[in-house]
Amino acid sequence: MLPIQVIDSFLLNYEIGQALLLVFALGTLGLLGLGSKKVLSLHFAAFGLIFLITPQAINSRIYLFLGLALLVVAPMLFTTADD
């Protein structure tokens, strides 16, 4: 377990959108190993909502558009999934 000071000193250099994007990318890489498009689409939808509801006062607007794009892609990916 990392001490809270290490996490805090890391996050001070980045804005919340960049930290969420890192978690999104790492989660996506982890889910690719499962091979399930439905789980991947649920991951996209969840992070789309997270990017949308993150307050824009502490986040740049580009992450709002990323959230909208993820919310458009997620249902299409879910419906085309075979498993």
From TrEMBL:
Q: Which Pfam families match?
A: DUF8006 (PF26028)
Record carries keyword Cytoplasm: no
InterPro entries per UniProt: DUF8006 (IPR058319)
Q: Which residues cross the membrane?
A: 12-32, 39-56, 62-81
Residues of the DUF8006 domain:
1-82
- The answer to whether the entry has keyword Lipid metabolism is no
On the tree of life, the source organism's domain of life is Archaea
Alphabetical keyword list: Membrane, Transmembrane, Transmembrane helix
Name of this chain's protein: DUF8006 domain-containing protein
What is the source species?
Halolamina salifodinae
